[in-house]
Amino acid sequence: MNLMRITASVQKIAEVIASVINVDVTIVDCELNRIAATGCYGDHIGTKVSRNSVFGFALRQGEGFIIDNPRNHMACKQCEDQHQCKEHAQVCCPIKVYHETVGVIGLIAFEETQKKSIVNNQENLMAFLHRMADLIASKLMEEEKTEKIKLLARELEIVLDAVDRGIIAVDAVGKIMHFNLKAAQLFRLDEKSVIHRNIDEILGEIDFYDLKMRNISIKNREFSYKKGAYRVRGIYGINPIIVGMDTVGYVFTFSNISEALNVVNDVIGSAIETKFHHIIGESEGMARAKEEAQKAAESPSTILIQGESGTGKELFARAIHFQGSRRRRPFIPINCAAIPEQLLESELFGYEEGAFTGAKRGGKAGKFELANKGTIFLDEIGDMPLHLQAKLLRVLQENVIEKIGGREYIPIDVRIIAATNKNLEQKVMEGEFRKDLYYRLNVIPLNIPSLRDRMEDVDILVGNLLRKCNHKLGKRVEGIQTGALRILQNYQWPGNVRELENTIEYAVNMCSQNQISEEDLPKRLKNRENQEQSNADTRVMTIRELEYREIEKALKLCEGSKQSMDKAAELLGLSRATLYRKLKEYQLKQSQSETNVSF
Ligand SMILES: Nc1ncnc2c1ncn2[C@@H]1O[C@H](COP(=O)(O)OP(=O)(O)OP(=O)(O)O)[C@@H](O)[C@H]1O
């Protein structure tokens, strides 16, 4: 604590003391700087007083005293000036703050009459000086407090400005007391025109009805704000400032919608962030699709993904987004077939307040707006009604959206990835899909092969899905028996990878050993007729596969019987030796239950 901070006040007090007692006054701080002085020492303000002077002695002592015998008093013993000293008497009174001596008030009598008056009024004089010292101390403490409050306010200001949300603090009636940098940017506010005005006046577009109604925190309300051509949409919250029983103000927090969405994306993004290595498949068809998609990820052009249901179209769309330059921005999927036609328009494009009966206060942001700077994934685009196709075409051609009930176009920057499991060309021919839109969407076509056309990927998919299911279900199934794998490899998979995924999950649930067996598979897959029928339809088995299957069948039929190998050989029309050779060749064991494939 330093008296330097309050020199003006100390000087005033020195002058008061001098006029009351009629002697010269000098006040020094703890560093022996002359902070204030009257009379002949007035010109010496700012200079240092010697450590060996009576002031130095008083600082060390920390107690008040009167010197009526200058030059001979013990306080004068070390003073360099004692032989030239013209003083008749001196009084010293320490200034203390919490027991710490922060300075000294000194009175100097240069005349005998002054000395007499000091000596005769010792007690009153010391009491008066102590009160003056306390006054200086309290001024100093007050100054320290004010400094601390200023520092705290500045710290708070810096913290608030560093927050990435707009913050506005108002008093109990809504008068703006403070706002941070982000709020200024968000609402284009300027300090002079805003401070002490009512928040309703400034942000009239936003309905702060709740502010006056409740004293509880309110979260995640939507707002939309317009200032000339500028507009912003977002979410806000209100927190009342309650002191004792009274609400003395409110703190509003605002985020613009895309930033709020970025936060959500950051939080959940890691769980759904997809990269190309998450797409399993090494077949030629899959390798080609991945290569094309990887190239498309680097481009801003629109992509149309075609493929049967469950082939991984959304997986591809996500990988394209998360591998491209928009990966830090939102990925917004919307299934055009899953949303009723009358709702789809407002889901995609949003609406303005009062656009229709039941429209929410403040309106609603559509998926396109939410996806701004990111990617929108329009799944099942083939099911989009014709009138919305026209609106979508405008987005593609002019990069603007028009909200329901809106009177202006809002510019947006969204990458569109559309997907369909329908034959869009066919739909165009039948007049159900706009030709111009088809061409606009089909800038980069991407065809995802069905699982049926890449059966060689089944076993690596099974391995991966097994690991995924083990993790999900907390199980430790290590692999799948050959017989069970053959069934999976022979099935037609109309539901593609999604169906395979569900099948493995079912099997892992059913499996009580460490390998999935035929018994663990769903019945529909084990229905031989189905398989044979479907195989006959589309897939030709190699002679080796046929031989393998028949040997496997014969071994199973004869299992447990006496001379089972002889019987199996007989059924197959082979010699015993040939059967043994073939078992070795196919790595089959006598007991089928021992046969398995591990991943
Ligand atoms: N190649 C793959 N590797 C790993 N998992 C896959 C693969 N393909 C699809 N899947 C999984 O299959 C499921 C269905 O995939 P997705 O939803 O991407 O298919 P879709 O073609 O978009 O389906 P729909 O046409 O029904 O919307 C998802 O759980 C996905 O993770």
Automatic annotation (TrEMBL):
UniProt xrefs under Gene3D superfamilies: 1.10.8.60, 3.30.450.40, Homeodomain-like (1.10.10.60), P-loop containing nucleotide triphosphate hydrolases (3.40.50.300), PAS domain (3.30.450.20)
GO molecular function terms listed in the Swiss-Prot or TrEMBL record: ATP binding; sequence-specific DNA binding
Q: Which keywords label this protein? A: ATP-binding, DNA-binding, Nucleotide-binding, Transcription, Transcription regulation
Checking Pfam families in the record gives: AAA_lid_14, HTH_8, PAS, Sigma54_activat
Enumerate the spans annotated as Sigma-54 factor interaction domain: 279-509
Domain (PAS): give its ranges: 152-203
Name the source's superkingdom. Bacteria
Q: Does the keyword GTP-binding apply?
A: no
What biological processes does GO assign it?
A: regulation of DNA-templated transcription
Q: What is this protein called?
A: Transcriptional regulator with PAS, ATPase and Fis domain
- Taxonomic classification, please? Bacteria, Bacillati, Bacillota, Clostridia, Peptostreptococcales
